[in-house]
Structures are given as structure tokens and as C-alpha cells.
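#structure-requests
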Amino acid sequence: MNYRKWMICALFAVLTTIGNAQMRRMPQAFEHWLETPGMRHATVALEIVDLDTDELCYAYDEQRLVQPASLMKLVTTGAAVRLLGGDYVIEDTIDCAADTTLVPMRELLGYNGDWMIEDVGSSYVEPLTCVPDAGMTLREYIKKTNENSLNSNAEALVYFLTQEHTLQAGLESIRNYWQQCGLDTDGLVMYDGCGLAPNDRLTAHFLSQLLREMKDDEDFRSSLAVAGMSGTVSYFLKSSYLSGRAFLKTGTTKSVTAYAGYVRGSNDHTYSVVFIVNNSSSKLTLQRKEIEKMFILLIL
């Protein structure tokens, strides 16, 4: 090996070492949690980034494709607010390209054949034939959608994104937008806009990239529920110092418990957090309590 090649290899080794050193080692308590009976056969994917320093704090199986459940709404609402703008007014009818008549949203939405029947029939989903909240500006609409995890609202957004007003065209538009932003869309498999489809997948790293991309978008950030105070996280972290300091979207089905959003640590740094658990055999209430402990453990 000549001297120049040796120097390049040596420099690469040093940079790799530095890059790895930036990421903190997982606490033992996290490793022990993974070995508890309810978690032993589960899949956990997470990524935590300090947005003030751009430091990757923690990552665990962040490149694995996992079921996101309603975290998929972040993918949809983030693209919608960028493509349509916060002042866009939601209509209850759409001028379809295939038909010159105005079609009510309820006739377009119906049921997606890719949705999980057991979850459509549970409290996880509101009646899907309801017309979404027409007349709202998009910033109001995505706040209501994300705070309360409204599936039909998220689905409606997909149809508004393209002139074709079809599910497939809307999903392609979302994927293309994030790809143009430089996100690794190999980490996104999207069959709907709300996260009900059992074949929906994304990586914690992809969603972490999305949160970093959207960190300065006030319409997007303010759409998230406040831990211990509002929406689907009104009781999450309520008794901890992170109450009122974590702005999160939840994802919950029979096989998924997940949280993603922004957390302001005790050092006043803002962190993007993606924490996804698939296929835990523990009861949902126990899973949430354990994930609360992990939030407190991993966020300074």
C-alpha cells in the first residue's frame, strides 16, 4: 500500500472512531429492560438526536423496518404542511380528475382494503365515513389530527395532495417530497396516510431524519400533543420532569406502542426522539410505564 492510500485509510479509521464515540452507550437499565419477559421477543427501534448540537445520542436497531402505527401521521402531515402551506383551507369536496363533478370526501375515503380489520373495529379508529373537519386551515387541521390521532383526517390529506386525488398518487407525492428533502426513503413503506395498514413500515432513522428536517416548522411542531397535558399523551410522563416538555405523536395498535416528537431536556437542549416497540407481550399499561422510564433515563 502506498503512503497516500495508507493516510486515507488511517484518516477514515480516525473519523469512524470519532463518529462512534459521539453516540452514548446504552444504559444497563435499558439492556435489562430488553431482557424482561414481556420484551424478550419484542422488536425495539429508537433514535435520539440532540438538535442543538446535531449529536446522535442514542440509536438502537434504527435501520430496521418496523410497524409505526399512527406515527405514520407525522409522515403525512409533515409533507402536507410543506406542500400545501398552513393557510390552506380544508374542503369537504374534491374536484376529481376522473370526474368533473365535485365528490364529497366521505365517498372518496370509505375503507382502505389494506387496513387492519381488528383495529378498524376497535376504539383505535373513529368512524371512517365522517367528513373530516372542513373549513379549517391546514395548521388547525393537522393539530387536531396529530393531537387526537384522527385516522380519517390523515387519510383525507393524502387525497388533497395531487390533482389526481387518489390514494396512490398522494402516497407517491409524499414519498417523493421526503426523497427530495434528502431523507432515506428506503426506510419508508407506506400503504396509507394514517398507519392502519399492517404492511406500513418505517425505520426509526427515517422518522428521526424527518423530525430534524421539520424542527423549525412551527405549524408542524405545534401540532403535537404535550406530554402530561393534552391529546393522546395527556397522562404520559405526567408525574415526571418531562411533563410539559415533551411534544409527541403516539402510535398504538395491538402490536405497536410508539412515540415520536421533540423533548426539551433539563439542559434546555431540544431532542428529537423516536421510540418504537413492536410485538411486546406485556400489557399496554405496563409497556407505557416502562417506556416512560426509558424516556426519563435517556433524556438529560
